[in-house]
Here is the input.
Amino acid sequence: MQLSSTATNLLNDMFTAYVDASETENTKRMHPSADSIELVIKELKIKTQDISSIRIEESKNPIAVPVHADTPKGYITTLVPLGYTGVVSTVLFTSYYHGTNTAGYKYRPTNKQYYKDEWLSTDHQHVDNLTDNNINRIDHQTHLSFLEKEDLCGLTVEQVIPWQLSQVMQFPSNQLHSGSTFTGSKRWLLIVSAIS
Here is the structure.
């Protein structure tokens, strides 16, 4: 499924005009209301009452999206690339988070904080399909070199989804996933919604 150019332009125009008070040199975020992007939600066939969160984000930060799950089980993540330079992908892993933290889960075996004052998950026992092995060397070099190998230990790549402008990606919100290595910048729409 692909968003129409009308819907994509609406999101990009809205985001460009938005002023983010917390914007940094590398990252800008916006949390539009469901009403303000009604056209997009209709095209995606998502029920407004099922939406948990909506975010448009643009980042030049190479570690913008380390391994995480968006929410506990019972939700779907919808991800739509709105703009990017170079090659960008979303990496899905075979592991799922079965805990209850509504803020999601961050997979970080080293407990290293990538951001100032970053919270880290402590309920690691609720993640399945982990191994005692290092990440596949080729997967690390090709898609995940922005992360330390130690923070990928135990994970197995299930799928690498190359970004295509306006192409809709959906996967369970409790599935561990991350961004890929990239250069330049990337902008995306993220909607988390309950499975109805």
